[in-house]
Amino acid sequence: MNNITIVGLGPGDPRLLTREAWEILTQASEVCLRTARHPTVDALRAVPGLHLVSFDEVYEQTDAFADVYQTISARILELAARPQGVVYAVPGHPAVGETTTQLIQRAAAAQGLSVRIVEGLSFIEPLLTALRVDALDGLQIADAMLLANKHHAPLDPDRPAILGQLYSRLLAGEVKLVLLNTYPEDHPLTLVQAAGTQASQTLQLPLHELDHAGSFFDHLTALYIPPLAHAGGYDALQEIVARLRAPDGCPWDREQTHESLVSPLLEETYEVIAAIESGDAHLLSEELGDLYLNLAMQVQIAAEEGEFRLADVLSHIIAKLIRRHPHVFSGLDVQNVDEVLQNWEKIKAAERQTKGEVESTLGSVPSALPALMQAEIYQRRVARLGWPGAPAPDPGVIPADEEAFGDLLFALVAQARARGVDPERALRQANARFAAQVRAVETRAQAAGVTLSALVPAERVTWWE
User: Fold this and answer.
1) Model confidence, pTM
2) Is there a contact between 40 and 7 (Cβ–Cβ < 8 Å)?
3) Main-chain phi, psi angles of 6, to 5 degrees
4) Residue 167, CB half-sphere, CA atoms under 13 Å: how many?
5) Can you give the pLDDT at residue 391?
6) Is residue 457 predicted with pLDDT exceeding 80?
7) What radius of gyration do the chain's Cα atoms show?
8) pLDDT confidence of 392, banded at 50, 70, 90?
9) CB atoms closer than 10 angstroms to residue 402
10) Per-residue DSSP letters for 23-54?
């Protein structure tokens, strides 16, 4: 005999109960219900001699759903200790959107109790019928409550999606804000209420009106999100690039290498910068697309060569972002941007030490950067440590506004040309001398066991000099 029998009540119409489920429910003397707010329960109330126990009062006593499910699961485990065990009925299928099933199974395994799952139709099958959607055509299924806690929808917009348990207008408003980060505001949606029952109804509306449906929301409401009218997901881009690189693809694309894509990468990057400076959002969208294409091509070449794949690229940067933002993901308390930057440098130093790299403030600055950009990054990085950096000219001759400063730099380039000096090479050499001086200071400090960032300003100047 099973200690715990979890029965799926189906989507709501008693006629959709499986034969096995109906036999177990009607032959039991007592059935515990996660909630009595389910249409199938009315049919169970008519069964002679059947005692129904509902846990609806737990929802009223506890605000957080996680606590509700923990409490209900704990009670089921207590009842399972009885000689007759316990029959526990849940809406739909016990393994679809049913947190208590997962909690009960884990705890029962730890306690040596047996659990039997009795299948039931979930809300998904009637939804597929109502929407005329094939589940094997890339259908994505998610919990509306979990998605509402995101900032970006974890959905591929080129594939259909269903969100279950969209139970309130407030939740719909939170879901709308998350979806707007992926889909256009006029993207068509379909709300389905009570799928699988005679009272089922649908409502079509644009995304920006999702939370305007009023009383349409309840515990049996689900949302259908169709694919974008035109492909717009990263997977679609990577598939096209892979197709272009395939044996029967484009000869030009097949010939590309990491090295051959360097010049186009620089060109596309500067075109993105130009689009940003133009203030033209449509142009920026197009130029970013060209940049994405170059990156997708680099990833595809690497995948073909067995070097790495897209997941490697993304998992690396995801882990780095989480690691370098403990004030966001790990609860570290920071008061301002300066503290964020200081902590950032400490984390990077720890990373370098873990890798066995020689610690250098300027070590990760690319040598191929344009000289002016390189000079600015060099000076910005040492400024974070409070170092004096390069000696400054008389402030009286330095213009305060960006336009005049640009004119001064332009005039310096003209003076360099008149004297036969290559300004780019001259600045690059100045950068090299500055970087050498920084590394010399760091090397001496490491040999002396001194932490430069911990020195008072006067000591920093002494070390620099």
Assistant:
1) 0.82
2) no
3) -105, 120
4) 7
5) 63
6) no
7) 32
8) low
9) 8
10) HHHHH-SEEEES-S-SHHHHHHHTSTT-EEEE
